[in-house]
Design brief:
alpha+beta, five-stranded mixed β-sheet, 167 residues, two-stranded antiparallel ribbon, STM4215-like, elongated
């Protein structure tokens, strides 16, 4: 789920903000070098939190807040195409987006200065989306759901269901 959402963010930003490199945050950040003439947007999942679970007999509902950090790495600060312009463009491209595909819309959480070195400015924007936390149905989850509870034991060769009452 995380990778699919990150990929969707990358596709959205590539379409909405042409003229910049848009990619996932590098595996080895210390080795990243800005080679694009204007700048880059680097996307990384930063954290998730979960709301209180609301369970009924056969369903469980819970909200999942997912936060993504977007790093704007640019060669100038205030001029056209600088950090300020890119920060605003990325925020506007993602705010409200995602409702149709994710079940929740992105919203800004925070933004701020990250670093400046050798004429390269880095700002970070954190965006979040709240979506339903859903368990994926797999062979394993289906088997677990079908397994007897702690108070049920199936007789090995008889196929009978024996209910054990624990005091």
């Amino acid at each position: 789920m995380i990778k699919q959402i990150e990929d969707a963010i990358l596709a959205r930003l590539k379409a909405e903000i042409p003229g910049y490199e848009v990619r996932s945050f590098p595996e080895k950040p210390g080795e990243f070098r800005l080679t694009h003439p204007k700048g880059a947007v680097l996307v990384a999942y930063s954290r998730g939190t979960f709301g209180r679970s609301e369970s009924t007999d056969d369903t469980s509902r819970q909200q999942r807040r997912m936060e993504f950090d977007l790093f704007m790495v640019v060669r100038n600060l205030r001029e056209h195409g600088g950090a300020y312009d890119l920060l605003d463009a990325v925020r506007l491209a993602l705010t409200g987006w995602g409702r149709d595909t994710l079940g929740g819309a992105f919203f800004p959480v925070s933004e701020g200065f990250q670093d400046a070195a050798n004429g390269v400015w880095t700002y970070r924007l954190t965006m979040a989306v709240i979506i339903p936390a859903q368990a994926l149905e797999t062979d394993l989850t289906r088997a677990v759901a079908a397994a007897p509870t702690a108070s049920e034991i199936r007789a090995a060769n008889l196929g009978e269901l024996i209910i054990v009452n624990n005091p």
